Amino acid sequence: MLHDVQYSCPELQINFALNLAEIRQRYLQDALSETVRGLKIPDLDHQLADLVPPHSLALPASHGLRGETMFPIPAVLEANAYLLGYYRLLYGYSWKEFYTRSTGVGPFKNMEERGVLPSARSQELGELCRAMCAAGAALLAGIGGQNVTAALLDDLTLLTLGPQLRGGANVKKGNAGIVMVFNVIQT
Q1: Could you give the angle at the alpha carbon of 135 between the alpha carbons of 95 and 90, nearest 5°?
Q2: Residue 152: inside a domain, yes or no?
Q3: 30: CB partners within 8 A, 6+ apart
Q4: Chain centroid to CA 69: how far?
Q5: How confident is the model over 7-46, as pLDDT tens digits?
Q6: CB–CB of 89/157 below 8 Å?
Q7: What's the number of domains the chain is made of?
């Protein structure tokens, strides 16, 4: 009978919900919108035109989306370095996969981690954006322009974020287990 079923508090989902609210303000579309609000649109348009093929800009625009919702540009990342995380999540790259020596992106990890563009890397930001815009164009071509909506882009970031949050929760659970075992051994 259902009245005999035991349940436990959905602590994992509660923590995910609390983390997600903070992440939306720092890394996702809410943060991007807030950042773009403070920038000069002609400057953004110029950088987008320089880094993104015209047909790749036309597809999101046909659905009322600005190019920076799909494509990173230096002006946006200089204004809010945390947003490198938005594009990483959007393109489906895990943290471990993205920030490696082999990708060359490792030196930019402080952007997503601390919101700081390393001054030694500021000259390479355009190159990073160009490479990521190529990935964005491939993503756009793969999903088809008729399917591009702000909701879909949000969903794609969350699909990458979910396993990242779950991995972090598993690490916390493992660390708590280690402490428990250590305490048992000590007594």
Answers
A1: 50
A2: yes
A3: 24
A4: 11
A5: 666 776 777 778 778 888 898 999 999 999 999 999 999 9
A6: yes
A7: 1
